Amino acid sequence: MWEQLKSLLQSLLEIIHNGITSVGIGTNFAWGLAIIVLTLLVRLAMHPLTAKQMKSMQKMQQLQPQLKVLQEKYADDKDELNKQTMALYQQHKINPASGCLPLIIQLPIFILLYGVLYDLTKTEAFTNVTFLGVNLGGSVLTTIADALGGLVDSTGAPIPQEQLGFVMILFTAFANLGELFSHLGTWIFNFILLLLIAWLTWYQQHLTGAGNPQMAMMNWFMPLFLTFICFGLPGGVLLYWGVSSLMGIIHQVRVKNKTDEEMKVKPVLYKEKPKTK
Length: 277
Hints:
Helix 3 crosses helix 12. A hairpin with a 2-residue loop joins strand 1 and strand 2. The chain has a domain of 125 residues. The protein has a two-stranded antiparallel ribbon. It is mainly α and 277 residues long.
């Protein structure tokens, strides 16, 4: 089943690529455009769920004053606080877990695309394919290894790309900074894309958890964690992730601006004030 889905996704990517090259665009640039078009199609297919997530987030922000009243009223009764909070969510038809749905659906597509691009890197047609300088088949780690002239084991045999480790390349790079920066164009664009994704992830987390002190640590942890993971991902997967994150942020900003306008109207709070101790 998984292999069939991967084959289907690869066929779709190749159809998009062939359609782009048919209008006279070079094959290398067309691969990058094909990944962007695929990202747009995925986001379009997910729009109903994403819109539901954003609407739920908007309602959650509008309910913050009521939630604060409940937290003060039931500060000494956590069970009743949870019960009343869920009742408030049900009253306004909010599902707190709805924000996870787009991520859960995107994850299999993300993994499938990784498999497709990894397989394509083994083909002659995808050798050294770049888009705006980004090596679509190579990761930050493998492009740095290429800049260093490739890494070898104790016998002098080249180390396969899938066996290149973060620590191994990091120490080798620091020991050979002259060689690394003399081949800057080999790896710098993949690295810049990685940094851009880290910032987009941070900004998206910041928008989602704005005003929520419980999310403060997560706002910093997730970008750092995902940045570490991204070191080994092909540039094509990073391109998909970056474009998808950018589109998500644009949507979130629109929802946030709309919410800010609506929240200028003073919300209706509970008539019963919290009991004084």
